[in-house]
Specification:
Elements lengths: L1 E3 L9 H23 L7 H21 L7 H26 L11 H23 L7 E3 H4 L2 H23 L3 H18 L9 H17 L9 H15 L14 H4 L1 H9 L3 H14 L1 H10 L4 H13 L1 H4 L6 H18 L5 H16 L3 H22 L4 H7 L26 H17 L4 H15 L12 H7 L5 H26 L15 H19 L9 H30 L9 H19 L2 H5 L20 H13 L3 E4 L1 H11 L4 E2 L11 E5 L1 H6 L1 E7 L4 E7 L1 H4 L4 E4 L4 E3 L1
Parallel strand pairs: 3-4, 3-5
Antiparallel strand pairs: 1-2, 5-9, 6-7, 8-9
């Protein structure tokens, strides 16, 4: 049975295209009418609202731009990116314009729904006018598309959901252990092509990514983590006021990914903002995984793309730290889409630039830290490309041009140097992004984001010489040279170092000589713009290790994870090249060092990589745990119902200073707007006329979690509660939370 491919809706005839678009639009209105009359169907509005906001505006824009025949995955990803950009900028526009028309609550259900409906209907009319004659739908065969791997791997996210439910309600983590063990086996299955056919690789990657994200994000019935508590407060403020006050001095308040995207999803999908952060954002972020797969696949072949992407999504930052920075989840998705556009040589130049600029602007309003890194990246990458092209710089060009002379290095004609005007990374694009981003950070949120980077730049420049290669000021180097807490954790560190070595080896191998991979005899031809960006990202990763204060503001692990978006294929290249080098060095050896052996070695390494990065191995062997999903004894900003109730009580009755230890202080920020005062090491420094908030961990252990910090990193220390609570009375106690005054 053959049906039209829904992921390539923009290739359908205009009548069925409009039928789907307007049908989903009307269905959303119908769900609202049903709920208003008490006849709502459970989950219908949530599902329809999510599909509508995530897909419909973008697919309409693709049709208006007459973007066709770019593949199912890329069509879907571009439509998602355009939809998110539309939601953010439409929200910003109505928040700015409607108050001038005496509509003082623009970010509420009525104005949002009407405005987006008008946008979609107007877009449908324009699409009909400009593209009504196009009708070349692609078809999929049900039997081939929905084979057994689809049903088998589709179970992974459901295992994650049910496993997290068991942990939250019964403290049973067995199912999550089963899930992580199953994920660890996936690369081994892929090593044997007959087990998992290559056409299913993108789906497998997506389901694994989503399962890893959900198995952690769904832990606790409240948000958990660090920055996300302030994001929660800012987004809630917009919902409560039905408007965004862009004058509030806060870096996060300048990010449309928080002040527009989260409230609009919450309002139109009728989802509590907590679950927007715990379900919607991880689901959106999971789309980055097939995006990275397609980036690598366009320049190599299936198994390299699979293993490279699998390496990226199983690095622990992807499914742990990223869940605590919702704005960066959105920004990284846009960064992946930008990379996918850069290497796409099939799109019409003007249409490509329109989409590229929209995605770049969306990145700028999604996460300031990533935007600054992107500025550095595209600026330096542009310089590299220009140096490799300009004939006037003969001496420099003669020295460096062999590194970029793709045709002489064995690549096909699609990868030879092109005229500068055909590049995506042009000076116009670089300057336009710089101007927009810096202008946004200057005028929004009282220049908070601009002041932050200025202060960091001053700190960096003042310590450039004195702090060079000093673990006290260089967080990345501190992580490397500090001995792990246990021997097993030291093994985990060595595994990360091995992976980084192969990335370096892969980068070096592409710099020094042509690449023709042994596996299948296919060319591995990295696009020169992508390779230039990769070189800059490699330099950024190195800078995070050797330069003072370079990575501490963003965190070294998050900086490394960002660079992996571009560096991840070089891990696979590095392993393949290492085997190739050994094969030449030991030609007479009986050891099998073929390409197939290399891919199986990658699969085995990734299997071990998963077990360490997910914390499986530590929890299974009784070592110091790292996963809050597998062990609830970890002292971390993860909160239960009693702690939330205590925070809400303080928010309702308290107008005094609140004192708390570090993890609990972060949670309180989500309710009172400012972080509670962190407990000082000296109990006598705690103000007398103030509250002391103790969470479940404090009550059970009679300890406070404080921090001893050097200039680059922090180390937890624990003090007894007694000296802090002497001569104070309990004003609130629910068994898990105790508050003194």
């Amino acid at each position: 049975m053959r049906i039209r491919d829904p992921f390539r809706l923009n290739d359908w005839g205009i009548v069925p295209f409009l039928g789907v678009v307007l049908g989903i639009q009307l269905l959303l209105w119908l769900t609202l009418v049903l709920e208003e009359n008490g006849a709502g169907i459970p989950l219908l509005r949530q599902v329809v609202g999510f599909v509508y906001l995530t897909w419909i505006p973008g697919i309409v824009l693709l049709r208006i731009l007459r973007v066709h025949k770019v593949g199912a995955i890329e069509t879907f990803l571009f439509s998602v990116g355009l939809s998110l950009a539309t939601v953010m900028f439409v929200g910003f526009a109505i928040n700015t314009i409607y108050p001038m028309l005496d509509l003082l609550k623009p970010i509420s259900e009525g104005p949002l729904l009407i405005t987006l409906t008008v946008f979609v209907f107007a877009g449908a009319v324009i699409a009909y006018i400009v593209d009504r004659d196009y009708n070349q739908p692609e078809y999929i065969t049900i039997g081939e598309t929905f084979g057994w791997p689809v049903f088998l791997f589709a179970l992974l996210p459901f295992l994650a959901i049910f496993g997290a439910w068991l942990v939250n309600n019964y403290r049973v983590n067995t199912l999550l252990f089963v899930l992580l063990a199953a994920i660890a086996i996936v690369p081994v299955l892929v090593a044997f092509r007959r087990v998992v056919p290559e056409r299913f690789y993108p789906f497998v990657i997506w389901t694994v990514a989503l399962a890893l994200l959900l198995h952690a994000s769904l832990i606790s019935n409240h948000i958990w983590g660090w920055d996300i508590n302030q994001e929660f407060y800012i987004a809630n403020l917009v919902i409560q006021n039905a408007a965004w006050d862009f004058s509030i001095y806060s870096n996060i308040n300048a990010m449309l990914s928080i002040v527009m995207l989260a409230p609009i999803y919450s309002i139109l999908c009728n989802i509590n903002i907590v679950w927007v952060f715990k379900i919607v954002y991880p689901l959106l972020f999971s789309f980055a995984a097939p995006g990275i797969y397609m980036i690598v696949r366009r320049q190599s072949y299936d198994r390299v793309a699979f293993y490279g992407t699998f390496f990226f999504i199983t690095f622990f930052v992807f499914f742990s730290e990223m869940l605590q920075v919702a704005r960066q989840e959105v920004a990284e998705l846009f960064l992946v889409l930008i990379a996918l556009l850069i290497i796409n040589k099939d799109l019409n130049k003007i249409r490509k630039y329109i989409i590229l600029i929209l995605f770049a602007f969306s990145l700028a309003v999604s996460h300031y830290g990533l935007s600054y890194l992107f500025m550095v990246t595209i600026g330096l990458a542009w310089v590299i490309l220009v140096v490799s092209e300009l004939g006037s710089l003969n001496r420099i060009r003669d020295r460096f041009s062999p590194l970029f002379d793709w045709e002489k290095r064995g690549y096909g004609p699609n990868f030879r140097p092109r005229h500068a005007g055909e590049r995506a990374l042009t000076l116009d694009f670089v300057l336009l992004f710089f101007i927009f981003a810096l202008g946004w950070y200057m005028f929004i949120s009282s220049s908070s984001a601009l002041n932050s980077i200025t202060g960091l730049a001053l700190q960096f420049s003042n310590n450039m010489v004195s702090g060079f290669l000093d673990p006290e000021t260089t967080q990345g180097l501190s992580i490397i040279v500090t001995t792990a807490t246990t021997p097993l954790h030291q093994v985990g560190k060595y595994i990360q170092v091995v992976a980084q070595f192969f990335i370096f080896f892969g980068i070096l191998s592409l710099l020094l000589k042509p690449q023709k991979m042994d596996l299948g005899g296919e060319y591995f031809a990295i696009d020169r713009e992508y390779f230039s960006i990769s070189l800059v990202n490699f330099a950024l990763a190195v800078a995070g290790v050797i330069l003072p204060f370079f990575s501490s503001a963003l965190n070294t692990t998050r900086l490394y994870q960002i660079t992996l978006i571009f560096l991840t294929p070089f891990f696979v290249i590095g392993v393949l090249e290492a085997f190739r080098f050994l094969r030449r060095a030991f030609r007479s050896s009986a050891i099998d060092l073929s390409g197939e052996t290399a891919t199986r070695a990658i699969a085995a390494f990734l299997c071990i990589f998963v077990l360490f990065n997910t914390g499986f191995i530590y929890s299974a062997l009784g070592d110091e745990p790292t996963s809050i999903a597998l062990d609830d004894r970890i002292d971390y900003p993860r909160f239960d119902a009693q702690e939330i109730a205590g925070a809400e009580w303080l928010h309702a009755v308290g107008n005094r200073t609140i004192n708390s230890d570090i993890p609990r202080a972060v949670m309180l920020e989500g309710f009172v707007g400012t972080m509670a005062r962190k407990m000082p090491a000296d109990p006598t420094q705690v103000r007398k006329n103030s509250y002391i908030y103790l969470g479940t961990f404090n009550v059970l252990t009679e300890k406070l979690s404080l921090a001893a910090a050097n200039e680059a990193s922090q180390v937890k220390v624990y003090n007894d509660i007694g000296p802090y609570t002497v001569r104070r009375g309990v004003v609130y106690d629910n068994g898990g939370t105790r508050i003194y005054e």
